[in-house]
Design brief:
With 392 residues, this protein is mainly α. 82% of the residues lie in helices and 0% in strands. It comes from Lacrimispora defluvii.
Length: 392
């Protein structure tokens, strides 16, 4: 039976690559959209906010629906929406009177798919009858990073060879990935997370103090990651004065590569370390990386800071999922849904704060990114307080 469920785990790995496409392809085109469609930085910021805001709303509303219709139909729907949104991204801006509205509509559609995947993939892997679930969970989340690396690398090479003006062809290529995943989830076996028992509803969860700790950790984790990830390409180009190709490779791809390495390392050796302490140390390292990104006198140091930031945030999101799964037994779909909601709230809030603060200071992304240091700071404070409570 475990052998049969390997195909399910592999399909979930591929699903997180879909999640990476949904979250990281369009940011590579931010500056091009400004030129092609005449969109201001504030409206570009709104595309980020809407993407994660819609995912957040889906997280909030999906738990009850998923339990009723089942994981299979929900996963098929998620991939269908992701593929449709990426396809419409190439069509809608050219057929509506306001191009930005077309972009926004496409983002909303694929964000629905991304939100469903955020809720579904982790509990499906958690339910599979496999050994060493923490390792499987860490490896699962590392595939988001490898997907991010692939999106940036393949997209950058495509832009270099064929020109960024042909980005619509690439968008259709990326749309094929969720289409393949959709076909896979017609066939792979899917186990029940609760094994026949009712998972916890929201009412018992909100009465659990640890649940609120994990929600706050998820907000800070998502914000710490995406505040740099979503703006890394634009920051490298404008803030550090490098070309589009170098900006994409040395900014978001380096960030994703280092994040994937940190998750793979923890997946391999994590049983030797205490997770909460690793997360606290990661938060401190994250703050240091923010300072290096924003205060470095030389561009190369800022790029190194992007890589350090990726490494530091790698364990935050999957680490919080693992802590919650081991600390709140029987949390079920509702717990995973609200953790994903909190994470997406952070993913929306972090880049939005960077965009708003940057706008206040004349589109200065260094100042905007510096303002987001509040998120890893809160994460560290919460973890230290959590340790104190556990000792007492």
């Amino acid at each position: 039976m475990k052998e049969n469920y390997k195909s399910t785990v592999y399909a979930c790995f591929l699903s997180y690559i879909v999640q990476a496409i949904v979250n990281n392809f369009v940011p590579l085109l931010f500056l091009h959209f400004q030129w092609e469609y005449g969109i201001s930085l504030s409206r570009i910021t709104l595309l980020v906010t809407v993407n994660f805001g819609v995912q957040l709303l889906v997280d909030l509303l999906s738990a009850a629906v998923i339990d009723r219709v089942g994981y299979r139909i929900s996963m098929i729907t998620a991939h269908l929406m992701a593929a449709a949104g990426l396809i419409l991204l190439t069509v809608l801006p050219g057929i509506v009177s306001v191009s930005w509205v077309g972009l926004l509509a496409a983002v909303i559609i694929y964000a629905i798919g991304g939100g469903l995947l955020e809720v579904l993939v982790s509990p499906i892997v958690e339910a599979c009858p496999t050994d060493n679930k923490e390792k499987a969970m860490s490896m699962l989340h590392s595939f988001y990073c490898w997907g991010h690396v692939g999106v940036v690398l393949i997209s950058t090479l495509f832009f270099w060879v064929f020109g960024i003006g042909n980005w619509k062809i690439l968008a259709l290529f990326w749309a094929a990935v969720p289409a393949v995943c959709m076909v896979l989830f017609f066939r792979v076996p899917i186990a029940s997370l609760s094994k026949g028992e009712e998972g916890m509803s929201f009412a018992p969860l909100i009465g659990n103090k640890l649940f609120w700790v994990f929600l706050l950790l998820m907000v800070c984790s998502g914000a710490s990651e995406q505040a740099v990830s979503q703006w890394a390409s634009a920051f490298a180009e404008e803030g550090l004065g490098v070309t589009k190709t170098i900006g994409d490779l040395a900014g978001p791809m380096l960030f994703a590569l280092m994040m994937g390495i940190s998750r793979a390392v923890y997946g391999q050796y994590g049983e030797r370390w205490e997770l909460k302490k690793v997360m606290a140390a990661s938060g401190v390292l994250c703050m240091g990386s923010y300072l290096l990104i924003t205060c470095a006198p030389f561009p190369v140091l800022g790029l190194i800071g992007c890589g350090i930031c990726g490494f530091s945030v790698g364990i935050m999101w999957p680490g919080t999922f693992s802590l919650a799964a081991s600390s709140i037994r029987g949390g079920g779909t509702a717990m995973f849904a609200f953790l994903a909601l909190a994470g997406d709230l952070g993913c929306s809030g972090g880049p939005t704060l960077v965009g708003i603060v940057s706008g206040w200071f004349g589109s200065n992304l260094k100042i905007g990114i510096f303002s987001a240091i509040i998120f890893p700071l809160i994460l560290v404070i919460v973890l230290i307080r959590f340790f104190a409570v556990k000792r007492n």
